[in-house]
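stuck on this one:
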Amino acid sequence: MSYPQPSRCLSCALLSTVLVLGAASAHAAGSGSARIDLSDSSSVAPLPTDPPIQPGERGSTLQFIYDDGSIESAHGVFRIPQYDRSVAGVYLNRFPVGHPLKVDSISIFWPPPVANVAPGLELMLVAYYDADIDGNPANAVRLGSDVHVTVGAQGEWSTYPVDFDVPAAGDLYVGFVNLWARVPNGVALPLQYPGSADSDNPHCQSYMAYQSNPLMLVDYDDIGANAVIEVLHDPDTMGVEDFMIRATGQALPGDDLFTNGFDNLIACTISG
């Protein structure tokens, strides 16, 4: 049986934000990220009807969306240099927010069957808060408790109810951990690419965190305890991409720092 061949990224650097990105040696077993091109995929999600991060009135629904509904690739973490086992990671989108809020749902677009992410696999939904608003999730504080759910239908959106309280203005990170692969040395073939991505008009606000040693388990309580924090990108073109992870929430009473979180988005450049 043949499997999709990944585009490999053994070392990459984010120039505009101070992140320490790990790189595994080609001479020893390690972990590294990779992607498959799905630009010809027929899986297209409904287009969002609202612009991202609607400030709104207190108590109104907030929408957190970067993607345009079309999937161009899927990403995963693997044991390298063999590329024979899938390893767990934390897949995140960053949304700068201007006031306290409650996140009440997270939506994930699961890639089509070629990505080998079968319905029913266990994952955990996560959210983090960082008062620094610096685009570096290393010191972000985890919000709430464990939310265990399962992968939904392939090539479709799955929406999961959550209850995460964001205490004040700052960086909100939302996403998931592929718990099914969170075992020493990962899980065997076929390679799995759980992170659906959109490359149209990217915002440079998506991240992957994982350990450079596949025998070590990814740390989802402390993002900074992972050896690699990587900005999502295409290693062939070095162009950034957005994870197809969305969220909704309700604004809570509190002082505004800014009315539109996109005022604080950073410019991003990736180099090989």
Residues 142 and 222 are 7 Å apart (CA to CA). The longest strand covers residues 156-166. Residues 7-39+47-271 form one domain. The chain has one domain: 7-39+47-271.
